[in-house]
Amino acid sequence: xxxxxxxxxxxxxxxxxxxxxxxxxxxxxxxxxxxxxxxxxxxxxxxxxxxxxxxxxxxxxxxxxxxxxxxxxxxxxxxxxxxxxxxxxxxxxxxxxxxxxxxxxxxxxxxxxxxxxxxxxxxxxxxxxxxxxxxxxxxxxxxxxxxxxxxxxxxxxxxxxxxxxxxxxxxxxxxxxxxxxxxxxxxxxxxxxxxxxxxxxxxxxxxxxxxxxxxxxxxxxxxxxxxxxxxxxxxxxxxxxxxxxxxxxxxxxxxxxxxxxxxxxxxxxxxxxxxxxxxxxxxxxxxxxxxxxxxxxxxx
Amino acid sequence: xxxxxxxxxxxxxxxxxxxxxxxxxxxxxxxxxxxxxxxxxxxxxxxxxxxxxxxxxxxxxxxxxxxxxxxxxxxxxxxxxxxxxxxxxxxxxxxxxxxxxxxxxxxxxxxxxxxxxxxxxxxxxxxxxxxxxxxxxxxxxxxxxxxxxxxxxxxxxxxxxxxxxxxxxxxxxxxxxxxxxxxxxxxxxxxxxxxxxxxxxxxxxxxxxxxxxxxxxxxxxxxxxxxxxxxxxxxxxxxxxxxxxxxxxxxxxxxxxxxxxxxxxxxxxxxxxxxxxxxxxxxxxxxxxxxxxxxxxxxxxxxxxxxxxxxxxxxxxxxxxxxxxxxxxxxxxxxxxxxxxxxxxxxxxxxxxxxxxxxxxxxxxxxxxxxxxxxxxxxxxxxxxxxxxxxxxxxxxxxxxxxxxxxxxxxxxx
Lengths: 300, 414
Fold this sequence. Notes:
Chain B: Belongs to the NtaA/SnaA/DszA monooxygenase family. The complex is a heterodimer. By secondary structure, chain A is of the alpha/beta class. In chain A, strand 7 and strand 8 form a beta hairpin. Chain A is globular. By secondary structure, chain B is α/β, with parallel strands linked by helices. At the A-B interface, helix 2, helix 3, strand 6 and strand 8 of A face strand 4, helix 2, helix 3, strand 8 and helix 9 of B.
């Protein structure tokens, strides 16, 4: 069985479109875009990941684009809108790497004290849950353009989400119609403690055995797909024969894309073909809408 | 050299202006529609493409309002995608200072500026609408009279971060400690017309997206703004004034007039007129004939429902007096809705007539250009680029090529 290949990208923006189009030509399923609200440790600038992804959406046509958006230091409503918009702009190629930046300095950018432990996990669950509900808040056929009655929308198919989490609430609906994929592909590390809410779990480990054990646990916790996330420098070699069957793909964090990509492509062997959407590429079904057939909601 | 007109398109994304009933209507939320639109605008040498903002889907009496186009993208995400499709046009995002974090928004705006190589703009708006705030962590927290205080602290924070400075600011309105991650210099637009809005513009804005389109009002506004600029130690020419405008062109004046009347009838349909009154009555009026007299029942207690998101400050109070006055007019529901809908910003005529009028505006320094709100998609923009733009160029008041590549250069700003 062929492994999917995902690449983490960051760093210089000027060369990014060329790197990502090269990855697309090579059949890489998606790129994840690292980010932080803090300046890069080594100096220089870091363009916000969602903005980079949106720009790349129009320079590529098949590769998935998954920016890291930090659930901890932003407004959940904006986050859901941004990702839905990326999915529209890319015609169904958006993913979201659930970021959980939790340093004191990161929280200080929004004037909040840091969360940790169970509180942090609950916050991540709430942000994922509300984003998923907001993506469903417009049914696929909500726009009816019925000239006879003068109605552009069917108001029964655009829903309040009425979400109440531990630390915030959101009324909804989203301002953006349902994303082409229905739900943006949600990607995150198994260590966040929200594996059951993910579409793709990222697992790592110091040894191949540990990676395989964590992959098994992530599947048991409900992740439809599991990718082994590895720091790849081209020297050590990947234990591809052991990973096949244990994981669905490799998420490679490379130090120099131009040098490492060709080696990585050789080592991981043939890749599944790219589909029209990221879900198609990954073999994930387009989810049913939780609000479909809900009918008219009770008036508030 | 004659002063030049600067043109933008304000793509509202919601509201009654855009006629979705037109058989040719292009899906206004589809990325292809946006890509085609900005391509046409670049062909027409426009300064900027604007996206509006509204952070809650409009409602009428607790239900999603279904009569107007609705659905819009996140502005910065969409403009970043469009940056990859264009090379000249400015890309302006309307973003409010109430329901955003200063460092987060500043970073996203500077990021748009970076990926577009200096073409980003920020149309700064404020809101105190607690109903919109129900979508946010800190909903409804900001008192109406302090919204510009927050906006000013927010803008100062953004400017400092863009200039590469650390920010350490802790007041009851802004609480942020942040280091710059992206530097840049997005062009600042300001649209508020209240005294607070005008002061913010005079202190910080590069461009005002004013509501004063009629000639006399435009002249008075320009004079007021220039005095405020001088008072704040800025050049009276430091800010470009671009009021909102609708344009309806025809081969003859009569044809343009007929088209404008058709557009107005399509914009203010019977169901929309009823919904308009329901905001004031706060009662179900669906049983009334829009072509009949005003409802004979009394309106509900309380002020206007904010959930349409469109009510200007001065209309939020005093509804009973307003209704009493309307009753003396002796008009139908739909005639009333047509009469109270602002029409001051509509330019109707042949391309030559509108070009002559606009040339007068710019010659007299009443405005520096216009922000055009399209009614037909496609249609309005193609008409303007193919007919009005050449007429303006013949009169020497509009560029014949882009001479710069950043939004600041297009607008001739320092």
